[in-house]
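Lecture 7, part B: from sequences to assemblies.

Below are the input chains for today's worked example.
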Amino acid sequence: MSLAASDKHNSPLKSLPKSPTGISGLDEITQGGLPAGRPTLICGSAGSGKTLFSIEFLVRGALDYNEPGIFMGFEEKSEELAQNVTSLGIDLNQLQHDKLIKLDHVHIERSEIEETGEYDLDGLFIRLGYAIDSIGAKRVVLDTIENLFAGLTNQGILRAELRRLFEWLKQKKVTTIITGEKGDGTLTRHGLEEYVSDCVILLDHRVNNQISTRLLRIIKYRGSMHGTNEYPFLINEKGISVLPVTSLTLDHPVSSERISSGIPTLDKMLDGKGFFRGSSILVSGTAGTGKTSIAASFANESCLRNERCIYFAFEESPLQIIRNMHSIGLDLQKHIDKGLLKFQASRPTLNGLEMHLVTIHNQIKEFKPSAVIVDPITNLITVGSVSDVKSMLMRLIDFLQAEQITVLFTALSLNNVVNEQTDEGVSSLVDAWLLVRDLEANGERNRGMYVMKSRGMKHSNQVREFVITDKGLSMIDVYLGPDGVLTGSAREAQQLQEVTGTVLREHAVSRKDREIERKRLVLESKIASLKEEFESVQDELNKTYIEDELRKEVMDKNREQMTRSRHNE
Amino acid sequence: MKTKDEIWELRLYIAGNTPKSQTALSNLKKYCEEHLKDKYIIEVVDLLVKPQLAEGDQIFAVPTLVKKVPEPIRKIIGDLSNEEKVLVGLNIRPATK
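Predicted structure of the full complex, as structure tokens:
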């Protein structure tokens, strides 16, 4: 569900033809590559990666874009060069054999050369022209042509000839990279930028806090849009990768699918369903609050769903984590055996932030996980400033969200200002933030957890007690006693007390019941005796009444007889 | 410093028949006749005809004169107009007079 990306190439005009470098990231920044058929200057100080950069340009061109290339080196011998790039998995000898790349070393030895009178560099032109024609090259690298200045004294001729060389290369329609050593206050020591005006890329190598970062910047790119920032880049065994600092748009797809956190009670706090797929989650807390356990539970749950998960550990070794997680009943080893879980452990100080980011990128691209754990991000502070870490995490989150990968970060928070900042810095980036806290009371420490934020879902605002048992993690409602929030043994004591109370109350109730029963019985027997009494009184009364009746009857009879006897006389 | 039995093997690289190569060749011939009579061989290589030879002798400028024998190998680039420099370069005359 991506929103339409910003219109990129809508112009009907034919834009500058470009020659893709194949260097990941660079083609994005340059919107297609270097200007085709024109010279590009790559400058930088010693060891900034100029040669490697140009070699990669040639090799990618030869292998991926079917554009053979010439490497004319003025510094390193061809054999040395071939050897040097073997470490990057590039076999220059094979490429030379396949006629995809031709190396030519121009050896200039000051002591062997005398200059007398007029000359020109036609020798170089012929050599280059011959090389280009022999393999049909489309790309040329001149590394570092400024060495000519060291070998030759007649600068006037040299400058005129260089100008002619670049013109000639343009006519030859080869895409050329010229490397140049950075000079004092100028881009190159001998002002090559004067001659190469189409595209200039500056490579830099900076060391901050003993950790080096390589940076790339496009100073100029005539006739094309290009990214203007400084982009960190990396050289590793797979060659060069450039990272755009930020992805320009916020248009990654979103999913409304929910995935469990691996802790059922935590899911309940999150609207009963858990996290969104592809969201970013931060678990922060002080030392020993169980952040890694939460992370491991999440990893475990992902693997149980048969989804891949990759765990970047910056504090503990994989074996340590696996051992420790056994204590809470998680068997991570079996997921590793199945190939669902992968640990990538390294000390943050191993390399700079950028290198970490690229390592993470590469690992993710290779392993294709659906969940990623970074434990903990706070250790990265040791290799960069807060804003560096934030920018790195932002890029990481962007990348992961674009790939629909759920990510869980853990962060250690101490009670000092710097780390509060970290939390703040990162927390605005993440979608869900769980906070684990120590609740210290009555001489014991308990863990409390709450959901600080969780975008796009109804979530609990309650502090829950977070318990770690040998069967896993669980959340218990904090007991709200008459004296406030109770946790841990205080909570248990309160619960016990309540149970006692119930028992006592039940006992009391039953005793009262019995007494009532007894009273009822007493009363009932009283009622019975009264009834008897009443019956005897009734009988008595009845008796007199019947006697009266009888008497009256008899008297009536007697009177009647007497009356009758009187009349009959 | 010249040894009697040594032969100067000289190779002059040019790119086409340009005024510069003409000057270089005539200068070279002149010096050789003067200083190395009967002890030199001049080979002229036109890179326009044989471009593949440029790499072998590390040629990047023309005209270039390469002295292969006697050792050490020396290269002199330019139209060889400065006689002093050429002679020093060819080890015909010691650098310090």
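Note for the exam: The interface with chain A takes residues 13, 15-16, 20, 23-24, 47-48, 51-52, 54-55, 58-64, 72-82, 85-86, 88-89 of chain B (CB under 8 Å). Keep this in mind when comparing with the next example.
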